[in-house]
Protein 1
Amino acid sequence: MSLPSELNANARLIASAPDLYIALTNALDCLHDILVPCEGDNCPCILHEIEAALAKAEGAHTHGSR
Ligand SMILES: [Zn+2]
């Protein structure tokens, strides 16, 4: 392919997005079982980090922070 490397990297990222999304969703389920639930909208823990990333992938229309 003659795509510029940045486009190429973006294309690979987009192509892998569904797998990443599923993997993160499964990881979130596991972490919910392991970690103590926390509260707070600005919590920086890994659970909220993953939830924020998933919300972004979904278009950020869930979990109420519009
Ligand atoms: Zn948290």
Protein 2
Amino acid sequence: MNKSSIAVFVALIAVAFMGVTTTTLVQSAEKKDPNRFNRLMPPKDKRTPPVAEDGIHDPENSGVKVLQEPKEAFSVLVKGKGGNYVDWVKSLNKKKISPLYDLDDPELVPMTVDMNIVREVKGTMPDVVFPHEQHTQWLECNNCHPAIFIPQKGANPISMVDIMLGNKCGVCHGTVAFPVTDCRRCHSKAKPMKTSKKSSAKSNKK
Ligand code: HEC
Ligand code: HEC
Ligand code: HEC
């Protein structure tokens, strides 16, 4: 064998091995759960795992045993549709939780602003209503202004792709707030009905 045919031979063996390992991996994953294709929808028993198994906390740390298990804590809160399956807005407003607004000053209460911003959406999806009230219950103005949004209606181009990529609303929604799968919670304002064909035909004649 000359040098180049050895190289080809080695490459062929490598490809053969890769083929074997990928098929084995796919098969073993399938064996576990044949319908597991959407990482946004873990099966019910896999949601809100115990603290020691959540991949966030160090299971070796003794503090892990002191923390309350999320499943237990969430069981008394208002249920939601996605993410960790808690409706945090309703849970807060029904006083199921009363988080401290400031760690150093327990007396401090949030300065909420009741101002809705409607963003008209082209196409058939209902328009988006951004409520300041529900946000300022948890957040300060400077969590969003001006780094994520310039405080001026319409000044910030936003698209669904942006959001899915983790920008604009997607900085929080899908990470620390309800996920993008809950379309109607943002797209909550029905569009005004279009005038029927008949009447518009009439007005065209005039
Ligand atoms: C979670 C993010 C967020 C927080 C927190 C937030 N805002 Fe906003 N704000 C927005 C968005 C989104 C818009 C709309 C921007 C657009 O349409 O391009 C907006 C718009 C505004 C506007 C422009 C309104 C208009 O009609 O032009 C003002 C003023 C404003 N915010 C003030 C505040 C103040 C004051 C606070 C704190 C009390 C605050 N915002 C907290 C996201 C936020
Ligand atoms: C966290 C809030 C939020 C959620 C959840 C959300 N959207 Fe959006 N969506 C927006 C905003 C904001 C815009 C931009 C509106 C504008 O043009 O100002 C938008 C725009 C759109 C548009 C217009 C075209 C585009 O890409 O910008 C479509 C279509 C759309 N969304 C579909 C969906 C669907 C389907 C879902 C559920 C799978 C969804 N959205 C969930 C906030 C959201
Ligand atoms: C800085 C973080 C942050 C950003 C950016 C953000 N949100 Fe939120 N949003 C939250 C939090 C936190 C909540 C309350 C907790 C929850 O509902 O998960 C919330 C709640 C909401 C609610 C209230 C739903 C209800 O049940 O009343 C809507 C609607 C919403 N967000 C839409 C948007 C839209 C649209 C954008 C972008 C224009 C956006 N948010 C940007 C953090 C954010």
